[in-house]
Structure formats: structure tokens, C-alpha cells
Amino acid sequence: MHRKTLEQLDYYRIRDEIAGFCVSEEGKSSLLRREPFTREKIDEINSLKRLSSQWQRAIQSKNPIRLQGWGEIASFLKLLQADGTTLEQDQLYSLMLFSDSALSLYASVKSLAAELSLKNLLDMAETLPYSALEQTVSTISRIIDKNGEIKDLPILREIRARIAEINGEIKAALKKYTSDTSLNSVLESNVPAFRADRQVLAVKASQRNRISGIVHEVSASGQTLFIEPEEVVRKNNELLQEEARLAQKTRKIFKETTALLHPLYDDLKSALKSMTLFDVTYAAARWGAEHLCNYALHCEKQSSLEQIGQTEQDSDGLPPLLLQARHPLLGDKAVPIDIKWLSGKNVLIITGPNTGGKTVTLKTFALLSMLNQSGFPIPAADGSRLPVFNAIFADIGDDQSIDNSLSTFSAHMKNIAAAVKHADENSLVLLDEFGGGTDPQEGGAIAMACLDSLIAKKAFVLVTTHHGSLKNYGYTTPSCINASAEFDADSLAPTYHIVMGVPGESHALDIAKRSGLPTSIVSKAKSYLTNQQADVSTLIRGLTQKHAELDRREKEFASLEKRQSEKILKLEQKDLKLRQKENELKERESRNESRFLRETRKALENLVRELREGEITREKTLKMRKFINDLTEDVEEQELELELEKEKLEEEEKALQKRMESEEIILENGMKISKASDSRSSSSKKTKKKLSNKEALKKAKATYTDEEVFNLAPRSKNAPPPKFEFAEGAEVLVGKSRSRGTLLHEEKKGLWTVQLGSIRMSVKQKDMELIAPTRNAVADYTVELNKEEGNGSPVFELRLLGMREEEALHALQKQLDLCAMTNFKSFSVIHGKGNGILQQAVQDYLSNYPGVKSFYYARPEDGGFGKTYVELN
Q: Which residue of 68, 92, 197, 274 pairs with 101 in a disulfide if CB–CB is 3.0 to 4.6 A?
């Protein structure tokens, strides 16, 4: 890149301004050496832009990340390479600040990388030598505090105390002189002075002999002598010795600390390189945030019409585009402009009035291109696209030179000749007031010939001109596109907007009249205009009016289309909300039915257990089980239908949301449709799980299923009938309360001792009723678990994690039944915490299970509220 061209574009002024946002001298120095990269460094350009854009996101977040500054370390870091070197106090302090800044940055980026999508910053932070940086901070902080002062180390404490003591003695010795009233006529001042770093007394020359000591200085008038009293001389000498001793000890400490840092040189050098890159991208992001900048997409300029037809998603196949571009040096005065290139067109010819913004437009495009090629953000709207150039040639302003015998036209031709000779398909050529400085007819001919050559070389060209011939050239040449600086005919002033596709008039007469040229002269000038030129001006005005009308109609159509889309989407939203509400009501009803089913199931199972203790039949048991299975099946099928409907509604909601976001439609409440919650997004997975496990769902409808669950073997024909008689160990029901008890022994005929719980009492035989022994009832029937559902043995730790509530309760019921049959007295249940649904379901089930003696949560170190211990009767 030509330095003179970059200076004309004010590139270096912007670069220096960005460098001012650096927090370190290394970062600032690196930015001040930055030049626009060429096409060979596209990957490096994109890498810098990615880091900088993520920095911009990080500093504008709710919890912004800040890069802490540090003192310059590059100048002395290399001292760590050599053995025996010693770093000074300020150098060690700067090194500690640098390491602390790197560690702080690493921690901040790592904690917010996922939330703010800072992948590239995190990858860069991961390269920092964390352990070496920690060791550096730890080593230096042992001797230097956060303010950069040496800590009160034991080895220095004694010396410092002695120095303070000596200073006190010196102060006391001098005070004897200054407070002695008899010496008022001897001293010029009662306040000691400093000469050669020693405290002295200002003594009148005439009273010299009154105070013995060393004369350090005589005043210019000779009337005052600065004397150090003899006793103070001794104390000051002692003070110098102690200070020298302190410096020696301090130097030794610094040398030992430097030696400890010597093995860390390579890591610190690598960290400095990474932190410098962090700093320059951080500075670019801060500058970009202050100037409302964005990062341009990369696109490949198109050199022929055959390249048209790329997709919108492929920015490399789209022409350059600047949206709401602003020259950064204009500040608030800048009028945003749009520069929209058409596919297959590489030459932009901008015409229009003087002071209308033609040159500013040309410079803005070129400057923003150079900033983009430096990895910087550009002051333009999001969605802007720019190519990368290898060279830039410019003919801007007047390079007339008396020393080199160059006229205005000669200076222009020298610049244009260099562009025509050296430009290629990867070059950007800027030609301001092209064809000026000579005869208009000849100048126009030269301009068109030069453009023909540049088009043949496929160069990218921006031209500003007043030549009417070039306006026609722009219409008739396929590679060219016209543009104009807009002019307000009513106010006779430029608007500084660029109108693409239409050439502009110079409005020289109007501007001359507005600038103060007499009306008579302006009228005379109009009379000299040929009819042909007047016809061209009329044609241009007509084209401009039609272009403006077309833009107005396009805007009206776009607005109407957007309103219609809003209405349609809002209707769809209302319909969706109604269907969601309907589904919620169904879900609530289903939950009520599920609760009813669980309660019914528990009651029926309790009844089954009671029936087992009495007389039961196979027919009664299967009938009861069928009732439970049918009820469970109906509820679960309804739940599955609700899940499918819910998933369908969520998919429609997401589709509606995408449509509204793409069209930027705002809902009635002023908000866009929010993304589906985690619970909604997980419903799809739950539904798929239900569908894929349909067969397993049918098997889980009941704890035991008909013939597979119960092997109700009838009694053997040869088995003796059960005997029910009053004997020791028999179970009986006592009295009207029918309390259950056990016969212990017969006291006398018709009178038995009965164990009722913890009470023993004598009961008459006629007041008791025998009940069927449990052993006989069990012997009549053999209970077997379905082999497909388990191995028939309880487990010490039942894991329910990942199960639905129904599956979990099914597994818990199976475990409890197995424990009852195998006399298994205790086990634990791991249900997790989560949203508390599974935890509460387990607690509710255990509360109502008749065989449970107690249950309680585990200790915190053993699982806490995510684990429950169960003890059975």
C-alpha cells in the first residue's frame, strides 16, 4: 500500500486514534505499526475481526469484561534470559501487574465464554501459560505489595527501624538549635534546610563561630551560611551507612527474585505475545463501540457478468455493499450513505454538484476498505460487505508542483499513469475529478480511454467527475454504474445523500448564484448553454424523478406487505395460544386422572394384600388386576396423545417465531415471541421416548400382569385341608373390637393367655375368633415375578434417575414387593433433586405403602435430598 495514498485517506489518523485505546505500551506500539493486510493475509484479517467482535460483545454485556493495564515489560523481559541479571523494583512490579492482568483475563473469559459465545477469545486465553503466570505473581508478591512498594520483610525491618531511629536523633539534635532562644540572633530561620541530601542550619555569616560544623553552601549574597552541626554530621554519616546497607539488602532480594523468574522466560515471552494481541483487538473493539461500528463481511469482487447468481448465504458471491456508512472524522456531522454495487460492475462513476459529497463518498469507501483490511470495525451498519485489495492507487486533490515543473493536469496524469500501468484485478483505483484540468472534450476522451484500460485489467474503480461524456459512458458500458450526489432544487443545497443508478447534474449555475455571483452574470451564463446540454439536464431530472417515484412506491409496497404479514402472524399467534390453552386444560385434567389412578391403585393393592391373608380365588384376583390395567391404559394413552399434541404446538410456535423474527414483527404486547422454555424443548424428547418404548409402556401398566405375574397354583388334591383350631401360636380376633392377637398358652380349659401387641391378657375362648393362618394362605399360592421384568431379587440401591414418574413408581412398587417376599428389611432409593417431581412422588408413595416402617433423606455427603433410605416392617 502506498503511504501517501493512506495519508490522503486519513488512515493513519484513525489508526493512531484506535491505538490510544490500548492499555499497554506493547499493544499501542503494535497498532502504530499496523498497515492494511493484502489478500494473502485474509485468514489473519478474519481472525483479528473475530477476536475484536467478541471483545465488543464482552465489553457491552451486562457483566462487561475489562482488560487491566500493565507497565511496559518488553524492554527488560529479555534480561531474564541471562543468568545473574537483576530486575529493578519498578520492573518487577510491572511484571507482576502483567501476570495478574493475564490471570484475571483468563478467569473472566472462561466464566463468560459460554454465555456470550466467546469461543475464539477462550481458545486464545487457553494458550496463556497459567501456571507460569501464577508462579510469577506469587514470587514477586512476596516482596512487593499491590501498590508497588517493598513489603516490610524481616530482613529489612531491623535496618528500617534503625534508619527511623537515626532520623529521629537528627531531628532532635537540630531541634536543640532551632528551639534555643539564645540562638535567635544566630539563625536566619528556625526551619532546617536540605543541602546535598543532608539537614543543615541557615546561619548568619556574622555569627559563624557560634555553631561549629561543616559549611555546605554559602548564599549568593554571602550573608547566610548553611552549616551542618558536628553532632548532626556523625548522625548523617551513620544514616548514609544504614541506607547503603538497606540498598544492598534490597538489591540482594531483587537478584534472588529475578533468579527465581529466570526459568519462566519462555512462558512469559509467549504470554506477552498473546496479551499484546488481546490488547490490540480490545482497543479496536472499544473504538468500534464508541463510533457505533460493525464488522464487514468478506466478499469477492466480481469481474464479469457471468459470475452473477450466487446465493444470499454466500457473501463471497455477493457484490460489495456499504450500509449507512460514515466517515469517522466527520463525527456527528457525517450523513450516512449507502453504496450498493451491482453484480458484474467494477466501476462506479459519481457525478453531482460541487460540495455535494462526491469526494467524501470516494474517500469513505476507500478508508473503510483499508480499516477492514487492518482487522478493524467500520462505521457502517451490520450487513456491509467489502473485498480485500492488494494495492490502492489514488489521484485525489491537486499535486501541482513548482519545483518539479508539474502543472495541475500533469500532476493528475502522473498519478493516473501509475494506476493504469500497475493496477490489476486486485487493485482499488480512486480518481477524483477525473478528466479535469484541461480541455473538457479532450479530458473526457482521455478519461474514457483510461477507464477502458482499467476495465480490461478488471480493476475496482471509483470516479468522481463533472464530465457529461462520462455520465453517458457509465450508461453504455456494462461494467460501470452511475451514481449521483443528491441536490435539493428547492433550497439549492446538497443533501449529501448518494443516489445509486442515476447520474447527477453539476448545478454549477445554482451554486454560483447561491455563493454570491450576481444574477445578471448567472442569467448570461444560462444563455450560453446549448439546447443539447439543456436537453441532457432535462433528461437527467426526469430520470431522477422517476427513480425517486420508484423508491417511494417500493417503500409503500414493502410497508403494506409488512402490515399484512403482521396481521396474518398475529392471527396465527392467537390461534396457537388458544390451542395451547386447550392443551393445558387437557393436561390438568390428565394429571387429576393420574392422581386418581394412583390413589385407586394403592387402595386396590392394599385390598389385595388383605385378601391374601384370607380366602381368595384366581377369578377375583385376575378380575381386579384387569380393572387396574384397563384404567392405567386409558390414562396413559391419553397422556401420550397430549404429549404429541403439545409437541406439535411447540413446533408450530417455533416456526411462527422464526417467521416473525425474520420479518421483525412485533406482537401486541410489544415483545417478539420468546424462545421455547427448557421444559417445552424437552417435551419432544419425552414424546419420542414414549413412542419408541411403546411395548415397554404396555408392560409397565401394572406391577404384575395376569397369568405372567401370578402363578396361582391350586392346592394339590392329596393335600390335607387346613386345620383351624385353638392352639399355641394361632392367630385370633379378640372381642368386639376384633383386635388381632396370638395365643400363647391355655391357662385352663376355655381360658387363654393372648399377646395383643405389647400387652398380654387372659381371654375366654368364646370371646375369640380364629383366623386363617398366613402360612396356609401362602402355601396355597406361589407368587412369581415376570422374568422379563427382573431377576426376582430386591436391590440394596434402587436407581430411578432418568425415569418418568410412572416408570419410577412401577420400579419402586416392584422393589417393595420383592422385599416383602424375601424379608428384605432396608434399602435406598436414588431419585435425584431436579425439579422435585420424582422426589415428591417417591415420598408420597412411601407414605401410603402399608409395609414401610420409616423413610428419611440421606446425609449431605451421601446424596442429601437426592437419596432416600427406606426401612420395612
A: 68
Q: In the structure grid, which three cell numbers stand for residue 232, read together?
A: 548532626
Strand extents, DSSP E, 735-825: 739-748, 751-756, 759-764, 768-770, 782-783, 797-799
3-state SS class at 489: coil
Quickly count: other Cβ atoms within 10 Å of residue 353's Cβ: 22
Residue found by looking up cell 531511629 in the block: 165
Beginning with the edge strand found earlier in the chain, give each strand of the sheet holding 193-195 in spatial order: 193-195, 198-204, 224-229, 213-218
- The pLDDT value recorded for residue 400 is 41
> Strands 852-857, 867-872: parallel, antiparallel or unpaired by DSSP?
antiparallel
Residue 619 CB partners (closer than 8 Å, separation 6+): none
Contact present, 442 and 327 (Cβ < 8 Å)? no
- What own/partner pairs with CB < 8 Å and gap ≥ 24 does 113-121 have? 116/54, 116/57, 116/58, 116/61, 117/54, 117/57, 118/54, 118/57, 118/58, 119/54, 120/47, 120/50, 120/51, 120/54, 121/51, 121/54, 121/55, 121/58
As a whole number of angstroms, the distance between CA 312 and CA 309 comes to 9
> For residue 851, is pLDDT > 60?
yes
| pLDDT higher than 60, residue 336 | yes
Does the structure show a pLDDT above 70 at 823? yes
CA 828 to chain centre: 42
Instruction: Return the sign of the alpha-carbon dihedral for residues 401, 404, 409, 415.
Output: negative
**What DSSP string describes 78-146?**
GGGGSTT----HHHHHHHHHHHHHHHHHHHHHHHHHHHHT-HHHHHHHHTS-HHHHHHHHHHHHTTB-T
Q: In sequence order, which residues have a C-beta less than 8 Å from that of residue 10 and are 6 or more positions away?
A: 329, 363, 367
DSSP letter at 67 equals: P
Interacting residues of 16 by C-beta distance below 8 A, sequence separation 6+: 32
Give the three cell numbers for residue 812: 419402586
Q: In terms of pTM, does the model score above 0.70?
A: no
Query: Which grid cell sits at 424?
Result: 490489476
Mean pLDDT value of segment 566-587: 80
What is the pairing mode between strands 385-386 and 297-298?
parallel
How many angstroms separate the Cα of 177 from the Cα of each of 200, 221, 239, 866? 11, 24, 20, 83
Q: Between the CA of residue 844 and those of 422, 608, 635, 767, 852, what are the distances in Å?
A: 86, 20, 20, 39, 12
Backbone dihedral region of 292: left (phi > 0), alpha (psi from -120 to 50 degrees) or beta? Answer: left
| Grid cell for residue 202 | 541557615
pLDDT digits (tens, 9 = 90+) for 455-487: 999 999 999 887 777 878 878 888 888 888 776
Strand positions, DSSP E, 286-390: 297-298, 321-325, 337-340, 347-351, 385-386
**Which cell is 206 given?**
556574622
Contacts of 756 (CB under 8 A, 6+ apart): 734, 739, 740, 741
CA–CA separation, 798 and 831 (whole Å): 9
Strands in 343-474 per DSSP E: 347-351, 385-386, 391-395, 427-431, 460-464
Q: What is the pLDDT of residues 505-533, one digit of tens each?
A: 555 566 566 666 777 676 666 666 544 44
DSSP state of 220: T
Cell matching residue 423: 493496477
Of 778, 777, 817, the closest CA to residue 798 belongs to: 817
Cα-only R_g, the chain = 47
DSSP 188: S
Instruction: Of 458, 469, 399, give the one whose Cα is nearest residue 432.
Output: 399
In angstroms, the CA 731 to CA 754 distance is: 9
Distance CA 194, CA 531 (A): 93
State whether residue 769 is helix, strand or coil.
strand
Residue 149 CA neighbour count, 13 Å, CB half: 4
List for the chain the helix, strand, coil content (%; round to 5). 55, 15, 30
Burial class (CB in 10 A: 0-12, 13-18, 19+), 799: middle
